[in-house]
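This is your field. Please look over both lines of this record.
***
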Amino acid sequence: MNRKFTTAHQQGAAIAVAITIGVALSTPHASAEVVDVATGDAAEEAAKPVATRPANLEEIIDGLPQNSLQEAFRLLRTDYIQADQLNYLELNRSALQGLLGRLEFGATLLSGAGRAAANSPFNFHAQALTRHAAYVRPGKFVSDDIDALDAALEKYNADEELDTLIIDLRSPQHQADFNIAARFLSRFLGSGDLLFKIKRPGENRPTLFLAESAGQRWEKDVLILIDRETGNVGEIIAAVLRRENDALVIGEPTLGLTVEYRDVPLGEDRFLRYAVAEVLLADDTSLFKKGVNPDLPGVTTAKKKHEIFAATDEHDLKTFLVDEERPRVNEAALVAGTNPELDYFLAKSKGEATPYDQPPLQDRALQQALDLLATKRFFGQNDSTKKSAVR
């Protein structure tokens, strides 16, 4: 199958972690160095790059051999001004916090409430957005979503004018069953096709996930939306459909959560979650900590996206894709002898609120996808010219 759109240069996202002994600190962004303020010649000297100076604390620690690490702990426990606070319990807490920081999202500690909050609050949604583009958005990536997808595909396949399906994978369901990913992908790939693999430490052969026979299949164009809240199953779906179906991906780079986690209780209301298996694509490509990079950037803030997703249970999604312009005086109004702005100005003069005071909720990423499809259709390009047009 020819690729329907061209891809942009992939971008990577890196996470730097700072670890300190005694008060271990981890951050999902970047670690900062503490720089002394100097003056005169000292300031100039400090401003000069030093090739041998490590860039951050993690690099400094990584340069220490085992005996130096042990000596650092010994010195802090004996000579630090508050050495009495550095008991073995505090050192173990710091060591665990630092280790989890280094492992990033390969492992973490959760409370019971934290585990429950990890589930997406949004439901499956499907509707036709234009005469030629339909839309589906899984919610929690559960079995009911697959049933809803089949019902939507049956309706879309019956409409000959629909030629593109937009799959929105931005629902914040970070962890879901890999079987759901396989069942979802089976609606887009041939029965028996290798979808992805799961590799576990100590096992010589990975577990293979193959496309199953499905009652409903979509064989036309696919466009995918992703962002930083796309979870493990969403990342797998996006990566496989881009590789196998040449689907265009719009949005933000994902985090790379494509692993199987195990939750083990550690005392009252505390759980250690850690990765025990890794997902590989058919060509053994790993997405763990790398994620999926979009072909085209398109960002809708998480806050606005959540509000839109919640509202689509009762409102038409198209409401959040168009601008409702405030009525203004135009030629037609002048001919009719009316002033469509009068009500607005009267309300503002009285200090009353109007529907135009706040910017409307808009899904910019989805708008961008529809604009791209409209542009492609307007120019009526064939497969041989689509790539050069997107460039």
